[in-house]
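We read letters as residues; the integers encode the fold. Take this protein.
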Amino acid sequence: MTDTVDKAPAPPEQIKAIPVRHYGRWVAGAVVLALVALIGVAFSNAKINYSVIPDYVFDPDIVSGAWTTLYISVLAMVLGVVLGVILAVMRLSSNPVTSTVAWFYIWFFRGTPVLVQLLLWYNISLVFPILNLGFYKNEMNQVMTPVLTALLGLGLNEAAYMSEIVRAGIQSVDEGQTEASHALGMTQAQTLRRVILPQAMRVIVPPTGNEFINMLKTSALAYSVQLPELIKKATDISSTSLAVVEMYFVACIWYLILTTVFSIGQYYIERRYARGSSRNLPPTPLQRFRKNLRIFGSFRRPEVAR
């Protein structure tokens, strides 16, 4: 009797993975590239003198208008944030009078266009011809300058939106934080300033940054009240140089510069306030760039014989 040796089982046949062909992606990419090419051809054949655009980017009047845009945007945003915090606290108050007034303010300023509000402030002298504060008296036309008109129109409108942002941030903090603060003897104001608002900043900062970037663009509406901001300066130059569309391109360049700079700042501010909620934050573009440089340097560094 011969011993039979069991044969080892044959290895399974290797699976050949065939990648799925995404024809739709290629078609969509081709369509997008065709549209971009058509738009590029249309602008290249347009009756626009692109060569004059670089000559006006750093024109003193344009730079002055950009500075006015930044100046009025910052002031209006500060006013909106301060008043928005006050309105949010009033809205959350158990006092029915303050909460109703805050609700009505938010309802009115969110429900009417910014341009209409600017024009109302610009013509407020029809309602109050004389401004009399007791210690100061003057004609309203002299008081309501274009800068003050833009500040009130943009800032008070922004306060309505900021109040909702702040209210959402305050409500995101657990109520136990407030109870613990009161147990330690803190007043309502101290609790809000030292406990609630610092924790609510993680929720408040991202939409606030978006609101400021939007404010930079919304400030162009101040052109209607004769504020010498970027659009007003560009329009004044175009009326003498007859380069209308070219000056609008110049204004777009400056708006892109301003929004890009503040978008970068917003990114790093958001990372700072997100540290407490997420330990594994993704690397910043600068950190990724440095990492790639180190990797590239390690490939190029010659090996040292030991």
In short: The chain has one domain: 54-274.
